[in-house]
Amino acid sequence: MSAKSPAASRIVDQLSACRREGCTALLPFVTAGYPTMETCEATIRAMVEAGADGFEIGIPFSDPIADGATVQHTSHVALTNGTRLSDCIALVARLRADGITVPMMLMGYFNPVVKYGVERYVADCAEAGVDGFIVPDLPIEESDRLLSICREHGRDLIFMVAPTSTEHRMTLVGERGSGFVYCVSLTGVTGARENVEAGLGAYLDRIRKHTDLPLIVGFGISTPEHVNEIARHADGVIVASAMINYLNTLPESDQPRGAADFVHYLRGEADLPSA
Asked: 83 in helix, strand or coil?
């Protein structure tokens, strides 16, 4: 079954609280530095106040393999703004210093991490208050070094599975991962979809046979109906492109408010205001 999560894992504590309360964990995705670092930071704060349960914070990267057009665009803008890996870590540190306590995970490709220094990366992130890491292009079979450093610093290393994952791969994720399992809902890249993939329930049931970690579903989640459907089989959702697309229709100064509105919309608490 699953590797033991760090004893002080915010991720485990938050997802356990959501489960006790009978609610679906909502973990929005934001790209650090998009559309600017100031607005990104204000947007995260607004979503915390609206009830977001944690965040996947994207590290801008020039050559992503899992990101669709929407998220790729955010990376391009953030890189053009000069956002670097150290800025992403500093963002989390500022949010922690101001009392933000929900889990925050950095999602980034492995090349910038290697350039930064793997041990330095995990140590600096731990000091800043980063709770876990998602590294989409790091094969689980080659994760020993990063995994050992994460365990040394009490951080969760979160692995992805997809509908095409073999039973053996799911077993490895259950044995080595901690925090939660990132369940890619479809075969493809990120992007808003109209419908939840057919067969999602059976796919998530397959994963359950290999791990007792919480299951968080990402890719294509767009509406409260999607959230409700996924809640029948999983513990939470990650929402990225649909929210970004909505925010892009608003003036930058209105985007923090718009992000809060989107959280309430996904919770089924309010209709989404027209842009």
From this structure: coil
